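Consider the following assembly input.
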Amino acid sequence: MTVIVFTVLVAIGSFCAGLLGSLTGLGGGVVLVPLLTLFFKVDIRYAIGASLVSVIATSSGAAAAYVKEGFSNIRIGMFLEIATTIGALLGAYIATKVPSHAIAITFGVVLLYSAYISRRVRPKSEWHNPPDPLATKLKMNGSFPTPEGLRYYNPVRVPVGFSLMFGAGTLSGLLGIGSGAVKVIAMDHAMKIPFKVSTTTSNFMIGVTAAASAGVYLNRGYIDPGLAMPVMLGVLAGSLVGAKILVKAETKILRAVFSLVIVVLGLQMVYQGISGRI
Amino acid sequence: MALVSKWTDQRVEEIIGNLLRTGVMLSAAIVMIGASIYLLRHGLSPAGYHVFQGEPNDLRTVHGIIARSIHLSGRGIIQLGLLLLIATPVARVAFAIYGFAAEGDRLYVGFTIIVLAVLLYSLAGGS
């Protein structure tokens, strides 16, 4: 395959990943690395480097839109970023130490888990907690606009959320994904932060977390310009188009199909990792 | 009082959000310029990412990337665009320090400095 053919094919694949990721809210990063390693036979370290770059692009590109809605809580985000960025450094460090088939197996397991999470019925997050002393001290209590006026919320269990975020950061640095699923679990389930606030705050954190590990990957020579170029441009274009048509699209079937794709890719990653082909 | 500081938060956030988007678009434009040079020169060479070799040293450091970009190396210019992309969230964190300082929130100025320090440590080639 020549460079030009390879570039065009990877760009098309990345565009689809970005489009589906944005339409389903699952992020394009989760399918990118399997796409590159399984179909294009790219070494997993190059694939992770390219994926990290695209994660930053989509997170920063979408930030302007999210901010205008007034849902994200910058204090919660910044405090938890201490955990995610340090975790990301650890993850990037582990990635340089463990064999690539171990990374592939871990990746497969995380894929299967994300598919499971995305299929679960979300409980209505109507939390009404009394103010938590630690969260209050950290000024995390907030409000967001709803059609019925401002809704106030009080996060709880800050240490649990912080620890989960450290784990999310480590996974992000190890696998080159945004690990939005873990971030939303930490905020939504553990800290009882309303869904709208947790998803938008998580988007803001994903870019900063990815930047923390991207620096390490760049310095280690894992970010290849020839590969990262079509991946980043493709995913960015796909997610921008996805954000535009999101309002009209019927996402329920799409989510089901995408989850199925994730399951297949996850099983493939585990299988190829165990059989030593990655 | 609480209302005023909330408004400031929102205002600072909006400016930062637009700044981020501009950064992403600028970096995408630089990557595209580099891509044209790279594809014109190497488009017909065989592509090979199956075996991991690691990038040469001058595509790993800020100094090396800038040096290669000045010589109009396609790969160097793509890498410069990617470097700018990685820098956008870092700039976002740096601006947040300013925002918190303007509100007189010393606790969060401290937290944000920790995050910025981790990011700069990583970019400087730490760990």
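The beta strands of chain A are 142-146, 149-153. Ask yourself how this observation constrains the way the partners meet.
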